[in-house]
Amino acid sequence: MLKNNNLSQDQQLFARIAEGDAVAFRHLFDKYFEVLCLNATRLLKSAYWSEEVTQEAMLYIWESRATLPAIEQPAAWIFRVVSNKCLDKIKRQQLEIRAQYLLNISPHEDQPGQLDYALLRKLVAEAVAHLPAQQQAVYKLQQEEMLSYKAIAARLGISANTVRNHLVRAFAAIRAHLISHGEFLPMLFFLIFF
Hints:
Layout: H1 2-18, H2 22-44, H3 47-63, H4 74-104, H5 117-129, H6 133-143, H7 149-156, H8 160-179, H9 184-193
Helix pairs in contact: 1-2, 2-3, 2-4, 3-4, 4-9, 5-8, 6-8, 7-8, 8-9
C-alpha cells in the first residue's frame, strides 16, 4: 500500500512539474537528492562528483519536464537518469585521463603526422583569452580548479544554470577557434573535455 501511495505521489509531482510547478520540483528534489547522491557515490566512488552528477540529473529532469507525465515509474526513472549520468561521467573521466596522458607525453619531432601538443595548448589558451570575462572566469574555475557548477555559482554569485550556459558557450568558442586552425584539433579537444 505504501509503495502504491508513493508511486501515486511521484506521478502527481511529475504531472505538476510538467506544468512548470517549481514548488513541486523542489519537493521532488528534496525527497530524492540525498538518496540519489548516495547511489551516485557508490558508482563514482566520489562524494564530490556524485553531487555534481546528481545536480546535472535534476537539471535534466526539470528541462525534460514536458515528458514527465508519460513516465509510469517516476522513482525508477529518476534513478536510471542518475545512473546514466554517472556512467557518462566515468566515460568522460577515462577520456580526460587518456587525453592528459597524450598531452603530457613529449612527442617525437621526427615522426610525421604527430600532433603538435604545444600548439594545441597554445591555441586553447588563445581561445580562452578571447572569451568574455565571465565565461573565462567560469571556464578557468571549472577546468583549472575542478570546481562544481554549484561551487562556481557560489563563488561568482550566479546560478548553476548560468554557469552551465557560460561553459557551453566557452567550449563552443574554443572549438570554433580550433577549427579555424586545423581539422585535427577539434577532435582532440573533444576527447579532452567531453
